[in-house]
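Q: Got a minute? One more chain.
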Amino acid sequence: MLEGTDLACWRGERAVFAGLSFSVATGGALLLTGPNGAGKSSLLRLVAGLIRPVEGRLAWNGEDAMSDLPAHARRLRYLSHGDALKPSLTARENLDFYARLWGGEVTPALAALGLADLADLPVRVLSSGQKRRLALARLALAPAALWLLDEPTVGLDAASVERLGALLAAHRRGGGIVLAATHLPLPLPDAEELRL
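A: Always. Here it is, folded:
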């Protein structure tokens, strides 16, 4: 279980949010919604351990998630706005880098997002939607209990959103947790919503 209690985040001299509490059980999903600048991405960065809360506590199964940041990093995958891909490498080579870090098989991960036919193309020639799918394919490599997704469907067509939906459903069936910041509907049935 992931639980945030009375979390506060500041950017410069401005409070992005304060007194924010939530909990997500195993197999659950939480949609972070609200206008631009409301703190959705900041909350994802905080949960990822990239920024510390000014106040409050983030807990994983009752333990302070921030007390051991390397262990916390191993239990999550964070997909931000940027796709974090090397343009000169092929799609396969990009995924192979992450497979060496985390384990997992590249070919099934490519297939899960409909990228098998593009595996040997350099990323620089891929469309923005194809690049986004390649970034999402990292989720299919090796299990991680917590997925943090920032606008995961940006640039995706309807078929790609369906593929993502299947990936999210399998993750949740296996006991995984999803936190996703979004302005658009996501294929996450029964997700809770936290409006910032």
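A: The radius of gyration is 17 Å.
Q: Perfect, thanks.
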